Automatic annotation (TrEMBL):
<protein>
    <submittedName>
        <fullName>Uncharacterized protein</fullName>
    </submittedName>
</protein>
Length: 185
């Protein structure tokens, strides 16, 4: 999946997502007050931490958030139902992605990258269960990637990235109505 981040007419970020199924969507940002676009922080954090159930993995898997709009291609006939099922199934990971991307975003925005691994572990403990699933190197990679993308963003006002296919959120099996003939007794 290809994603192009551009500065919108109002100064906010707009990410245009070109999915493998041929559908293109726009994801508006609401971040005029930040030098680092928040959705770019999601991209860097989720990619470095390999979070397939985060924002970009969910979009790659067919998820469409309420603030998005289709700008190209033809969605499947059941796209809305599939999106709902996928987003519902990955709700916890989406919440965690929001929390962790916020920490990484703030670290790059404020220049406090040295404290980020501890801050991410603290954030994880507020929602996560079990042992912390990443190393300090993973967290530092997220900060490094976001820092590099921020330099490009500030220089060009545009960033083009690719979301890896292996980080596409899986669509859970449907629990819908079974149709067809029933056996008679």
């Amino acid at each position: 999946m290809h994603v192009v981040f551009v500065r919108g007419a109002t100064g906010s970020t707009v990410a245009t997502v070109h999915r493998a199924d041929g559908v293109s969507l726009q994801l508006p940002g609401y971040d005029r007050k930040h030098k680092v676009p928040h959705d770019l922080a999601h991209y860097a954090t989720e990619r470095a931490l390999e979070m397939s159930g985060g924002v970009f993995g969910a979009i790659a898997g067919g998820g469409v958030f309420s603030n998005m709009r289709v700008v190209g291609g033809k969605p499947r006939h059941d796209a809305a139902a599939r999106s709902k099922r996928l987003l519902d199934a990955h709700r916890d990971t989406l919440t965690m992605a929001e929390l962790l991307a916020g920490v990484v975003h703030r670290a790059v925005e404020d220049g406090s990258a040295d404290k980020t691994p501890a801050m991410v572990r603290d954030a994880w403990r507020s929602l996560g269960t079990g042992p912390f699933p990443w190393t300090d190197d993973h967290v530092e990679d997220a900060v490094r990637l976001l820092t590099e993308l921020t330099v490009e963003w500030q220089a060009r006002g545009t960033v083009r990235v690719t979301w890896p296919e292996h980080l596409t959120a899986p669509l859970p099996a449907s629990g819908g109505i079974r149709r067809g003939r029933r056996g008679r007794t």
